[in-house]
Amino acid sequence: MAKISKKRKAALAKIDSNKQYTLNDATKLMKEISYTKFDSSVDIDIRLGVDPKKANQMVRGVVSLPHGTGKDVRVLALVTPDKEEEAKAAGADYVGLDEFIQKIEQGWVDIDIIVTQPNVMAKLGKLGKVLGPRNLMPNPKSGTVTTEIGKTVREVKAGKIDFKVDKEGAIHTSIGKSTFAPEKLAENAIELIQTIAKLKPSSAKGTYFKGISLSTTMSPGVSVEAKSVPGI
Distance between CA 202 and CA 185 in Å, rounded? Predict the structure, then answer.
């Protein structure tokens, strides 16, 4: 059995594992249970009452978190020459096309998001084996395939994220850092959860939000009472 560290024991002691906390109380706990030496991410896990094996129950979307994620998102803009200045002005970290496609083919993936144009997608097909498993392939549904390159880059840098239910019927993403004020974490969580609520498939029956929990990097999870989230 793996040994539990003193810091993790201290974090566990602050949580009642048999209790569902309100969202406001759960976000207040995030700073208390974070014990890493770096600024931990605050993650949310949402279990949904859907069957992701059925195409009509796939839940996927995008949301702009009002306070961002606190992470410096590295954006690669794969664009034609006429869009390069627009991408650079918007804050893209890397801008180009063929030279970056070649780098990716050679294994370079030191990026978080790729933004591209519809007329460039044909060139990216051969990168599927590299980008697909890392969830880096641009997709029109996530808003990363667009003609509005500058606008999209700015939104991504400001905290726009995409989410997708996994094969277990859960959505997992970051909503900030442990140094965020609890109110900001709560507002980010509400924006995400309300967006997911609006995407409920008509074919999904029964309870939609089956479980919500918050955690920081390496910390235990805190169960959140779904009805404490406004608008769901």
Answer: 29
Rounded alpha-carbon distances, angstroms, from residue 65 to 6, 69, 106, 156, 162:
34, 7, 34, 10, 10
pTM of this structure: 0.85
**Regarding beta strands 75-78 and 41-48, do their DSSP bridges make them parallel or antiparallel, or are they unpaired?**
unpaired
pLDDT tens by residue, 104-163: 999 999 999 999 999 999 999 999 999 988 989 999 988 999 999 999 999 999 999 999
The 3-state DSSP class for residue 126 equals: helix
Q: How far apart are CA 140 and CA 129, in angstroms?
A: 19
CA-CA distance, 90 to 157, in Å (whole number)?
9
Phi and psi (nearest 5°) for 177? -125, 160
The token pair at 197 is 């609520």
Q: Which residues are paired to 214 by β-bridges?
A: 44, 222
pLDDT tens column, 156-185: 999 999 999 999 999 999 999 999 999 999
Distances (CA, A) of 22 to 34, 84, 173, 223, 224: 19, 46, 19, 9, 6
Tokens representing residue 221 in the block: 């999870």
